[in-house]
Design goal:
oxidoreductase; 7-stranded parallel sheet; binds NADP nicotinamide-adenine-dinucleotide phosphate; alpha/beta; 43% helix
Length: 254
């Protein structure tokens, strides 16, 4: 039997792939055999590209800021990946931001910025990639949500709203595109040691409270999100549509 997790010859685009969870996923896809294009905003992509190439895969990177993204910008990003790799089989919507503020003080500008990056860009890039995939009759879209896609969180109203919304979007797109051979699924990471959680991990009280509540007793490493992404991007997940794979050290089970 062929290895159902093998991604040899597949072409993937990972947004925010030069750092954090995105880098962990990009390297996991490359290790499974995929060529990988990534987007970056502020982190230089050279190191990640070198690791992708060291795995014997093709890498490519494009700089893009998703704030205020429109259809043309989304088509440019997916077009870049398809041109660089010779096609696009897998899209991982990973890029995202968090803004912590008491809800009574949350400025509309920050609310909008979080929703633009965490929701609008996911919609636009999925639409742009989905057009190609539906036409071809195959493709994999993976959306990075969060455990805050099903919980409220503390002082992160826009983030929580965006992460709930992308789970709804995962299900909505799955209903339309599953009949066309396109798998749309989500990952819900728990607390992972990246820039996103730096402030929490730097606060000894908050950090202790979180660690006490995580059954695994530690934060995740970015590389630990790769397995779920490889699975959802592979033939092993051919019958997974609209699923949310939780990778949270047991957080939601608590
Ligand atoms: N860390 C966690 O505990 C955790 C838990 C659940 C879900 N998540 C989700 O996992 C995803 C990755 O987060 P992370 O933890 O790896 O945090 P991170 O290290 O801060 O990475 C965020 C990524 O998003 C990119 N990005 C941020 N703003 C952008 C913008 N305006 N336009 C385009 N790209 C932008 C960043 O690019 P540059 O670095 O190049 O600027 C970076 O690659 C996010 O969707 C996050 O919500 C994280």
């Amino acid at each position: 039997m062929a290895n159902p997790f093998d991604l040899t010859g597949r072409r993937a685009l990972v947004t925010g792939g030069a750092t954090g969870i995105g880098e962990g996923i990009a390297l996991g896809l490359a290790a499974a055999g995929a060529d990988v294009a990534l987007t970056y905003r502020s982190h230089a992509p050279e190191e990640t590209l070198a690791k992708i190439e060291a795995a014997g895969r093709k890498g490519a990177a494009v700089q893009a800021d998703f704030t205020g993204m429109d259809e043309a910008a989304a088509a440019e990003v997916t077009g870049f990946a398809a041109d660089a790799l010779g096609g696009l089989d897998i899209l991982v919507n990973n890029a995202g931001i968090i803004y912590r503020e008491e809800s009574v003080d949350m400025p509309l500008s920050e609310w909008r910025r979080v929703l633009q990056v965490n929701l609008d860009s996911v919609w636009l890039l999925s639409q742009a990639a989905g057009k190609r995939m539906v036409e071809r009759g195959s493709g994999k879209i993976v959306i990075v949500s969060s455990v805050l896609g099903s919980q409220g969180g503390l002082r992160v109203p826009a983030y929580t709203s965006s992460k709930h919304a992308v789970i709804g979007l995962t299900r909505a797109l799955c209903n339309e595109w599953a009949p066309h051979g396109v798998n749309v699924n989500a990952i819900a990471p728990g607390y992972t040691a990246t820039d996103n959680t730096q402030a929490l991990r730097d606060d000894p009280e908050r950090s202790r409270a979180l660690l006490d509540r995580i059954p695994a007793g530690r934060f995740a490493d970015s590389s630990e999100m790769a397995g779920a992404a490889v699975f959802l991007a592979s033939d092993a997940a051919s019958y997974c549509h609209g699923s949310v794979v939780t990778v949270d050290g047991g957080w939601l089970a608590r």
